[in-house]
Amino acid sequence: MKNTSNVLNEITSDIENQKKYAKRVRKIIAEKIDRKKRPLYVFIQTFGCQQNEADSERLLGSALSLGYEKADFIENADLVIFNTCAVREHAELKAFSKTGQLKHLKEKNPDLLIGLWGCMVNQEHRIDEIKHNYPYVNFVAGTNMLHRLPEILCDVLENNRRRYYVDDSDYPVVEGIPVKRESDIKAWISIMYGCNNYCTYCVVPYVRGRERSRNADVIVDEAKSLIESGYKEITLLGQNVNSYGSDKNEVSFAKLLERIAALDGDFIIRFMTSHPKDVSDELIDVIAKYDKIERHFHLPIQSGSDEILRKMNRKYTTDAYLKVVEKLKKAIPDIVFTTDIIVAFPGATDEDFNQTLDICEKVGYDSIYSFVFSPRKGTPAEKMENNITEAQKNERMAKLLAEHRERIVKINKSYENTVQKVLCDTRRNESGFYFGKTSTFKLVKFTYEGNNNIYGKFVNVLITSSGDAMLYGKMI
Ligand code: SAH
Ligand code: SF4
After folding, report:
1. Which residues are CB-neighbours of 365 under 8 A, at least 6 positions away?
2. Ligand 2: residues within 6 Å at CB?
3. pTM for this one?
4. pLDDT above 80: residue 280
């Protein structure tokens, strides 16, 4: 998919060189601040998944380290970066539409720098579109360029020209990028980048490259220092966390998880996403052993039809999937499952769809993230014949959601009159409510009559009622 012939791909330096570029950028920023007699502001907007959120925290950290301050509103920004997503067309159209809206900001402030980052712009055809339709975009950079923000800004600022950087998808993981986390109690840790699975519908392996695992000691140190500085929830991220380490004989994901779970402190660990073909017995044992590991497993099924799973190149059957679920339920009786489903994959018949409804019933998912199939350029599924009509797509989606709603109302009802340990992750809102999540990833809205500061604390909440979207209760 990546033909770099008509893109500039000259950046070859490493993190040490970045420090030299950073020095030059800081000088330019300081001069601008002097001239304008006000701070320079950066605004970063993220599209897509948690891994993008985590990347954006590094982009922001880098920008702050170069002398920018965080803008509260995009209108105030001197540097705007959109960290884009390519998984479905909808996300790409949204990023383009937002980029279109930047034109008037650029007219008001010609000094404004605009950058498009990440998955969407790691595709040749999207770069062409940006070149032709969005000439006011100053720079474009792919997913693996995070550590090179100083170099990119230096180039753009010193030479005042447009730059398009497509990255090398096998670029090794670079450590030491400054990070500014969005939350002071919940932290993402990307443990690996890329994906080797090549599901036939998915663009991720093309735009994020091959699987590259971070060193386990570095990850454990990062987790330790987060916990020591008061973080209560650590989420380990990767496109397929279960294959962590397999690219370089690192420790297994189960061992990594265990090392973090064994750290001292009051915290919870979440992780995503797991590929059903790689859930090991070792991993199940570790989850069962440590109650610091969430009782929630996000296990994307995608389809309940073996024929469609084969066409998707998912490398498991529904039987194999259900066996994993059974094992997990047996070892960890309070575990809940959430999933991703692609509705209207090419060739999926009504019978295939009914099999998807069946498996949802069998597993009893707590949440279903359902997506209508979106053809992605360069993937095998893009070329598959697809005769499913819009009406059928809508009908299937509506049915899936309606059945799920019926199920979730019952599941949520079963929480009533129980006491749940909840991490309170908001301050009291104007109506007097707090919010938090259970270990099973249920959203809880609750009241608290006392005066202590419970933000960032694990509290016990008596669940008094429930709906399809959340549980309601009071702290006891
Ligand atoms: N690595 C993760 C998530 C990948 S993207 C995993 O394998 O589960 C998140 C979800 O987006 C996928 O699970 C899938 O359900 C959905 N998705 C990916 N490509 C898609 C496409 N072309 N059309 C519709 N949904 C898609
Ligand atoms: Fe995409 Fe499949 Fe990799 Fe997930 S496992 S990122 S769906 S190719």
Report:
1. 337, 338, 339, 404, 407
2. 195, 197-199, 202, 204-205, 239-240, 275
3. 0.94
4. yes
